[in-house]
Structures are given as C-alpha cells and as structure tokens.
Specification:
318 residues; four-stranded antiparallel beta sheet; single chain; seven-stranded mixed beta sheet; alpha+beta
Length: 318
C-alpha cells in the first residue's frame, strides 16, 4: 500500500446518435479531456475511511443514497485488495456537471478504480477497468451500454452500436467544440417516452427520422476522419432538426443551437438525453470558439466548456 494513489478521467459527449442508438442505429461519442475529474486516495493514520467531494464529505459508511453505486464499487475494490481495515481519505475533484449527459458517474468510477489500483500498487488492464466500472454503472443506470465508461477512459472517439463492443475511430479534425449547458437538468426518461409516442402515433415518419439519424452518424464518422468540418457542421444541424421532430429538444436548447448557427458556427445540436442538459457547436478555431462562448452565455448558457478536436491538441487547455 502506498501513501497515495491518483486516478484521472474526463467527460464525454455524444456527437451523434442519441435516441436513435436505442433502435439499432450507430452512435459516436467523443472524449472531452479538457473537462477533467481526479480521484486522490491518501492513507491516513486514523484508521478511518473518508470521502471528500462536492456532493458529500464524511465517512465512507455514511455515503448518501444517490452515491450507492460508488459505495458498491468501493466495497468491491476493498474486497479485491483486502483493504476493509485500511485507513484512507478519497478526494474527488470534478469539472463535470451531473445529469447533463457528460458521463459524470462513469468518470467518477473510472478515476476511483485507477486511484485504488495505484494506491495498492497493482497493474490495471483496460478490460478489468471497464468491468469494474460496470459495477457502479449498473446501480446508477440499471442497464448501461458501456459507452460512457469506454469513452471517459479513452482518448479516441468511440463508434457504438447497441449490443456490440464499441470501436475506437480515427479523428482528423481541425476544429474546436463549444459545449453549453442550458442550466436545466436533462430529462432522459421523458425524452425516451416522447420518441416512443412518436413511433406509436406517427410510425412511418418517426422511423424515417431514426434511420436518417443513423445515416447521418455514419456520414459524420467519415467527416471526422477526413477533416471535413463544414460537412460535419451541416450534418450536426440536420441531426438536431430530426431530434426536434422526435420531440426530444426544448426551447432552451433550440435557442442556443439557433444562436450558434447565426454566429459563425459550422453546425450545432443538442447532446445527450435532451429536454434540457447541453448542446454543442463546432467552430474552426479556438478564437472563434471563445467568441461564440461569450455570445452563448449572453443568450442564457449557464456554463461553457471548450474542447479542441484535433487529436494532437486534445489535451490542450483553454
């Protein structure tokens, strides 16, 4: 056992395919290395096990109900390392907002696992990492696809089809992403129900939208690889229109998408469950992104993140 173990992870964002992925269409998720989460496990000589985080600070045994996935994961890790009697303080520092579709729970799990393995001096392979993360995600999300954990622990975009293993894909894109939070918690269940209603009431049109979203996702995959930023932008905006037609957007998201497209973004769309949460836009340069960020904040965005999308610059900070 070492004096300290540190684990890192980051946010993710669904580039394309939210909702349509439920119906067998592909999705693409991007890692967001600029939106970081760090778990630091430090030995203490008091024999106590303590948690320090923005949601809860206190004894590990007193973790609240909303963190029961973390509780189960840590208990399992202590089983692995025979560490139930060891004293430690786990500090979790996160830039990720909760309930915004950016993978907060998965990122927390990944960082904690990495911190524990470093603390106990054990080698951690990727397969084990994702299997352990699934312990937490099954509690938090009941039937997780595995996409969140795979992306928040990766430096490559993930191409995903339900029921299949996600595949890393190449990204060669000279652009910067601007992510804006509406300040409204996403309502994924409501949005899922809205899509089901559309499929029931307007089955032909709704199925056409879902298939079209799948087609757009495959086009986006090629545009990412070929540095076709303008074409990608058009694809994003078109996808947003399909999602609006499926009733998974809301006025706050639509306003920010419209503002972005009116202010030199190549394209914009909602991301995640919808009915709140975040949208994003694509710009050419970091300077363009900063300018757009100011405009989006003036139009109601509560928080902004910038992420360069050239793989060589993924770790660059703004």
């Amino acid at each position: 056992m070492k004096e300290q173990g540190i684990g890192h992870s980051h946010a993710k964002i669904i580039l394309m395919g939210e909702h349509s992925v439920v119906y067998g269409q592909p999705a693409i998720a991007l890692p967001l290395p600029n939106v970081k989460l760090t778990a630091q496990l430090t030995a203490n000589d008091k024999g106590k096990q303590l948690i320090e985080s923005r949601y809860f600070s206190g004894a590990f045994s007193q973790l609240p109900e909303q963190m029961k996935g973390i509780h189960k994961l840590i208990n399992h890790l202590m089983d692995i390392f025979d560490g139930h009697n060891d004293g430690w303080t786990l500090s979790i520092k996160s830039d990720l907002p909760a309930e915004r579709g950016m993978g907060s729970s998965a990122a927390t799990a990944i960082a904690i696992i990495r911190a524990f393995f470093e603390f106990y001096g054990k080698v951690l392979d990727r397969e084990t990492l994702l299997q352990l993360a699934d312990i937490e995600e099954k509690v938090t999300h009941r039937s997780p696809s595995g996409l969140d954990a795979a992306t928040v622990s990766s430096t490559s975009p993930i191409y995903f089809i339900k029921g299949e293993k996600g595949t890393p894909i190449t990204m060669n894109l000279h652009a910067t992403m601007v992510i804006a939070d509406t300040g409204i918690k996403g309502a994924t269940k409501e949005a899922i129900d809205a899509v089901k209603t559309e499929l029931s009431v307007n089955p032909t049109k709704a199925n056409e939208r879902i298939k079209h979203l799948g087609k757009l996702t495959n086009q986006a995959k090629d545009f990412l690889n070929n540095d076709e930023v303008e074409k990608l932008g058009i694809t994003l905006t078109t996808a947003h229109q399909d999602l609006v037609a499926l009733n998974v957007s809301n006025p706050a998201l639509d306003k920010l998408v419209q503002v972005a497209n009116q202010n030199n973004a190549f394209g914009a769309k909602l991301t995640g469950g919808g009915r709140g949460g975040c949208m994003f836009a694509i710009t050419h340069t970091a300077l363009d992104a900063r300018r757009l960020a100011v405009i989006l904040q003036a139009n109601g965005a509560q928080q902004i993140w910038l992420q360069p999308l050239n793989e060589n610059d993924m770790e660059e900070s703004y």
